[in-house]
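re: ur question from earlier - yeah i can do the single chain one, its not a big deal. heres the input i used so u can compare w yours
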Amino acid sequence: MPKQPNTLQLAGSAVLVTGASTGIGAATARALGAAGARVGLVARRKELLDQVAQGTRDAGAPDVEVWAADLSDLPLAEQVALEAWKRFDGIDGLVNNAGAPKRKHITRLTTEEVESIMTLNYFPPVRMTLALLPLMRERGSGVIVNVASLAGRVAPPREAAYAGSKFALNGFSEVMAVDLFDENIHIRAIQPGPIETPIWGDVPGNEKAAYDGEFFPPEDCAAAILDALTGEGFERYIPSSLGDVVKMKAQDVDGFIAGSAAFARHPEAIEHV
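and the output i got, formated as tokens:
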């Protein structure tokens, strides 16, 4: 039996976006505004968030609200979700985008760093989703988009903590899609590859990324998120060609691990995807 079709129309709908002050979140906010959505924005840095909010209004959003909040405060994450539901008289789409990098070789990684990145990248989406899901089910509709990562399908070198958090988010998303298959609640997973965002820069507490090839604009990811909110299909890769990398890994996991190790040793000798 096919899943009920996704009938969300962005114009007039209320969409809550986390991690909205820069990068993918900011681009998504502006794209939603241009589509006529009412937009809730969540991020830690209020000054940047206010700038994005103004840009979202300028793009055409009829209603914008901001919440300056650190979502690693998990009770606060749940509180923000419920406040947004009340503020907009319902949330039609939730975009769990907030996240942070953690690039360290496994021999230099601490348990505290692993726990910290899970508290940033995994538990806030879980708390916000589980806060809104009963309300969406009672109303009978909703779309939840979790922005994971290619690193949540294909683990890159020196990113055990980050990849672990994104593998967890992908697993959570996939099981939700199964459990809610017979309901009019649609679950989507976004798998960005190398996107031009601050997480690829010189971030304190992070080692240099192994990848230094082509990067793609955050607007490409925003377009995929809007397509996920309104369209069919569980998963989207940005760029779409990265889906082939995941298929290649599935065909020969041992070979893929060996190739990744070679890439970590000599990245300049391997053609970038």
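The two ends are 37 Å apart (CA to CA). not sure if urs matches, ping me
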